[in-house]
Amino acid sequence: MTSFAEWVKMIGTDECLSTRRPLTTSDPKEVRMAESDSNRPISVRTRFEIFKRDDFQCRYCGQRSPEVVLEIDHIVPRVEGGTNDVLNLITSCWDCNRGKGGVPLANVMTSEDPHDKAIEMMERRRQLDEYNAILEIENTKREEEMWEVACFWNDIRCIAPDANGFHTALKKDLSWIKNTLKWCPKQKIKEFMELSIGRGMKRDMRYVVVCCRTWREERFDRAAY
């Protein structure tokens, strides 16, 4: 079984985190998820992309990783002709998938087989390692973007780096930038920073904070209609 670390080396960190749009087989920029041969094993890459699409959540019971072990399930079982097409793949927890098998979910039965429990423990460990690894990758990427935005804020205010070439920033500003990057693109933050400077507000980031908050609220309002 391929480990997550090996998987990252195979396809590259940037590629696996390049998009958060729902996956479709019609978009050439997305990972090709459809596999015509239903007997082919689901690749590690496909498995992980399905997990990301479903937000690491079992679509049957709603439980999330790492509290439960997740697997890929076929909506239409392969024994009934189901394929490995992305539209037929769904995230399922260990219990739902093991109980479901090739029968309707309403007929789920639980199993206390010691062998299954041992495998479950091994899979839970691997699942937790994968989950922690992706969190670490995303945190590192956000840290880099945080400093990129902070340096941009210094540059447009004509604040030069120190003698060693390092920029400095207030801890509260760095914390706000990092948290805001979770829901606001860095280019949008930079745009509001330039707007703040244009309006003569360069002492602190309060105007930028208000602009980002307003932008987020407007997006939610538009989505509600």
Task: Write the SSE topology.
Elements: H1 4-11, H2 13-16, H3 44-53, E1 70-74, E2 89-93, H4 94-100, H5 114-156, H6 171-180, H7 186-198, H8 206-224
Antiparallel strand pairs: 1-2
Helix pairs in contact: 5-6, 5-7, 7-8
Report on the architecture of this protein.
With 225 residues, this protein is mainly alpha-helical. The chain has two domains: 4-111, DNA Binding (I), subunit A (Orthogonal Bundle); 142-224, no CATH class. The chain has helices at residues 4-11, 13-16, 44-53, 94-100, 114-156, 171-180, 186-198, 206-224, and strands at 70-74, 89-93. The chain has a two-stranded antiparallel sheet. The longest helix is centred in the middle third of the chain and has 43 residues, at 114-156. The chain is elongated and about 65 Å long. Residues 1-5, 7-37 and 101-111 have low confidence and may be disordered.
Summarize the structure.
The protein is mainly alpha-helical. The chain has 8 helices and 2 strands; from the N terminus they run αααββααααα.
Number of helices: 8
Bulk shape:
elongated
The CATH C-level name of the largest domain is Mainly Alpha
What is the helix content?
40-55%
CATH topology of the largest domain: DNA Binding (I), subunit A
Beta-strand share of residues: under 5%
Order of helices and strands: HHHEEHHHHH
Structural class: mainly alpha
State the low-pLDDT regions, or none: 1-5, 7-37, 101-111
- Tally of individual domains: 2
Distance between the termini: 46 Å
Q: Mean pLDDT, rounded to whole units? A: 77
Task: Write down the Rg.
Answer: 23 Å
